[in-house]
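[agent] plan:
  1. take the single chain provided in the ticket
  2. run structure prediction with default settings
  3. attach structure tokens to the ticket
  4. add a short note for the reviewer (M.T.)
[agent] executing step 1
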Amino acid sequence: MFCNSVNGKCQLKNGFVVVIMVTALFVAFLCGCGPTKNTVRNTEDQDELAQIAMTAKNAGVREAAVEKLTDQVLLAKIAVEDESGYVREAAVKKLTDQAILAKIAMEDKDWDVREEAVKKLTDQAILAKITVQDIKEYVRKAAGEKLTDQASLATVAIESKDEYIRKKAVEKLTDQVLLAKVAVEGKDKNVREEAVVSLIEILASGESVKIYPGILQMVPTFATLPIEHRTRLVRSVFPAIDELCNSPMVAKKLGEINSIGFDWEERSQLYTDINGGGTERVKGEYLFCSIKFEKHSSPILCSWKTVFPYKFYGSNIYFKSAHVDYRSILIQMVHQLGQNSQTFLEKYAIKSKHYSVRCAAVVRLIDPTLLAKIAVEDRNFDVRKAAVKKLTDQVLLAKIAVQDINEDVREAAVKKLTDQVLLAKIAVEDKDWDVREAAIEMLTDKALLATVAIESKDEYIRKKAVEKLTDQATLAKVAMKAKSKGIRTVAVEKLTDQATLAKVAAEDKEGSVRMAAVKKLTDQALLAKIAVEDKEGSVRKAAVEKLTDQVLLAKIAVEDEDGSVREAAVEKLTDQVLLAKIAMEDKDWDVRDAALETLTDQALLAKVAMKAKKEETHFRVAAVKKLTDQVLLAKIAVQDIDEDVREAAVKKLTDQVLLAKIAVEDEDDFVRKAAVKKLTDHEN
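[agent] step 2 finished; step 3 output follows
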């Protein structure tokens, strides 16, 4: 054999077996190599094993020897004194002496040795002590898993600093008195909650729970809840009841809880699937909570209910739980007690860990100093906002409006500011749109509004600023200096000063702005000039729509290059001859149609109907429909070459003789039918 001093293992070499064995013994002799694991494997002699376990230099060899030892005294000595944690752990695994195991479990420097000792311990007091005190999580857990003694479990549940350990200890508790003790004395809410849940389950199973002090008032009422909803509802409201029982502020004001009532009922709503999938009943719930105190005559009342959807789409039908929020209970408490106690409100406004409860308290506070402190220092923006809404100190409001990191808080401060310069600055510079808008709403200084309208980078804010202006001089400044055509347009629409409007209408570089000015102008001479000279058709059209000069309108109706401008002029013309001429000759269908719509002279209408381009049947029919002159209609009904035009004329005829003649002689079937229908209608 060949001794490998690194791992203590011997490897067999094929061939030369005898030579290798001799060589190995010689090397072992020269090197002073002590016993090996092979030595240990080959002996059962306890004295030899003891010698190896105590003196072998190699820890692995000592460990192997310990695993074969049976002497408890020697094992105890090794478990305490060996320098190797592996060797001590091997010795611990063979020990049965509870005193030694306890000493090792509490004192060994290696956590895995302590853990191994814990696994063999049965002393519940020692296990409880280790569960609470050991610095290593694994050791604490190992000790906790071995605990069965109810008193020890209760001690751990109350005293352990490890939340996991505390919770696990509560889960193993079955003793009602001890569970009640943990529910009342546990250092954290989660452990107290677990204890209460366990007690409720015990009572719900049919056993009698006899002790109901403080927080345990909730046990009997919650035990009556349906099993499928019980735990959810307990955990939903427990934090509030826990606080009511454990808060010194509440205890001083209200005293102990006398009773807790909690009623639950199922509710439902029937839906008809709008997609045709039949009807379904959606289940929900209604809950009512009542908490009575020894020092307060009125109970704290709170209720929750399922809010059903308005429509049903035939999917996702399931039980809809109510939004049970324990903070509702605390808020109701603050509402009730805060009516007569500012001191109580002050404590809750600062000390409550629930932001919504702090908000409820702040809303009822009147101390300006405390409100100022909360507005600046509270960690929650909703609470700061609630405080800001009650502030009047303009210096502090200005600071908050500029510096608070939350836009809702800044907005609340802005809405209480009076400093016009600062409001203008915020309206231009704040990074949040809502804050800028709030600043504009509070801004009344016309000069500053004009500045915002001109300088702000936000089009909406500029527009809001202009909309608040009424001063004509300020509006004129914006109308002529604002960079945005949209803002200039808004300003123009609020202007009444004709001189300014005339200047804008003549000089603004944007057609839309000029057009807005034109629509506000009344000067006919200026309107006439714009109607003829402006370079944009839309502006000329706006001017034309306000013109009254028939001569100029006639000129524009014939000469303007833009069809929409000519059409606008035509709509204002009264010259029937010109209208007829345009109706027949203009190159733009819309213009001709507008001329025909304005034309009322019967002879001219007949002329249009008969002399307009023959291929434009629709246009000629439109002219016929405006005719009332029976002579002209008769002429068209008999002579026109287009059957559609003749039919239109027939439909307006009243001459029964002529209708009878047409009904027999006209070559077109539709014309004859139209004539027959008129004859029949007349007879009826």
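[agent] step 4 note for reviewer: The CA atoms of residues 183 and 196 lie 6 Å apart.
[agent] ticket updated
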